[in-house]
Recover the amino acids of this structure.
């Protein structure tokens, strides 16, 4: 990181020393009118320059105290994306970067895309370390697969800000939404809609990801403790992937006949949307099966409005919270180690408020 060196004060002290020391000057000769005028103009210009320099120095000092860029410092952020095949992962990157462009013009970006492969994402983080970036922002694919790479960055003195999912090693800041609470919210809402009883199929996310682990735990623990007559009759990890979810649901609709499934709890919207379409294609949409999702995609909002989905839960895109946290770290501003973003349940009663705002 570049450090500003302000020399105006030191220069002022040196000039004052030169004028304040030594023998007294000889009396000046009498000035002509022209010389007097010229001297006054020169003095005026000198005051203007001094005022300008003072203003510049004051602005620089203020920037240092507020964390705003002063114009001569630059930072390079390495962004380690897990994938760009879903609306959510695209939004979390673009919205944070758009905020940076508007508020932090002196930031530079180095981006990588793991394309859904955890080994690639770990290698990408190691590459960012070798490039000497000032801070790494990462949206982890799994919690345990990046432990060594993130630890290596932290040990090298490079701050790390995680978004959405977490890793199994300490980081500088983690920006999260409470995935477990989202599972609790889904269980409570389904219990309300199902009258506290019925069979549920759970379509899970990626094995080992903190989001899938917590969304499953929050949902299943709530059913076990509060709604003993609501049973999960089948579940499968589908990697947050719509095609895998559709294939799984085709099997489930053959395994369970009419009236044997009351709800399908999906860990994200792309899977929920695929499940809803599969139910329609199988001619089972007239059974009133309650299909739920998470993330807050525009397509999900539209399905909630037309009755194909019961509800979804908006999972915040961590923006601009992650970008603000990263910049606070870079500029040595106060920053909490954990930033919690609040999820929102969107059902038939409030979907109109959210149409047009969802992830594309």
């Amino acid at each position: 990181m570049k450090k500003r060196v302000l020399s105006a004060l030191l220069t002022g002290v040196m000039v004052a020393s030169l004028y304040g020391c030594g023998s007294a000057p000889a009396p000046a000769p009498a000035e002509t009118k022209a010389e007097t005028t010229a001297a006054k103009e020169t003095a005026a210009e000198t005051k203007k320059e001094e005022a300008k320099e003072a203003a510049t120095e004051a602005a620089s000092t203020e920037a240092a105290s507020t964390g705003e860029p002063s114009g001569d410092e630059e930072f390079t952020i390495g962004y380690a994306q897990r994938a760009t095949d879903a609306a959510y992962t695209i939004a979390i990157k673009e919205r944070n970067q758009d905020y940076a462009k508007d508020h932090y013009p002196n930031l530079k970006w180095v981006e990588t895309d793991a394309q859904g492969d955890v080994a690639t994402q770990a290698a990408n983080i190691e590459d960012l370390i070798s490039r000497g970036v000032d801070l790494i922002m990462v949206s982890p694919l799994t919690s345990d697969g990046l432990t060594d790479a993130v630890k290596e960055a932290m040990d090298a003195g490079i701050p790390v800000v995680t978004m959405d999912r977490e890793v199994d090693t300490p980081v500088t800041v983690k920006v999260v939404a409470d995935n477990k609470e989202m599972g609790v919210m889904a269980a409570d809402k389904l219990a309300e809609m199902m009258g506290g009883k019925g069979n549920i199929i759970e379509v899970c996310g990626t094995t080992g990801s903190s989001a899938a682990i917590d969304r499953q735990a929050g949902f299943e623990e709530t059913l076990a403790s509060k709604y003993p007559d609501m049973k999960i009759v089948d579940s499968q990890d589908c990697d947050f992937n719509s095609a895998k979810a559709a294939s799984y649901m085709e099997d489930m609709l053959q395994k369970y006949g009419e009236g044997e499934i009351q709800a399908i709890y999906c860990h994200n919207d792309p899977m929920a949307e695929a499940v809803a379409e599969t139910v329609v294609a199988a001619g089972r949409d007239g059974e009133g099966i309650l299909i739920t999702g998470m993330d807050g995609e525009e397509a999900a909002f539209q399905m909630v409005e037309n009755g194909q989905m019961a509800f979804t839960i908006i999972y915040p895109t961590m923006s601009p919270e992650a970008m603000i946290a990263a910049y606070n770290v870079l500029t040595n501003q106060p920053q909490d180690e954990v930033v919690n973003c609040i999820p929102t349940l969107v059902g038939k009663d409030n979907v109109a408020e959210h149409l047009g705002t969802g992830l594309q």
Summary: Residues 33-66 form the longest helix (34 residues). Residues 1-71 have pLDDT under 50 and may be disordered. The CA atoms of residues 298 and 358 lie 4 Å apart.
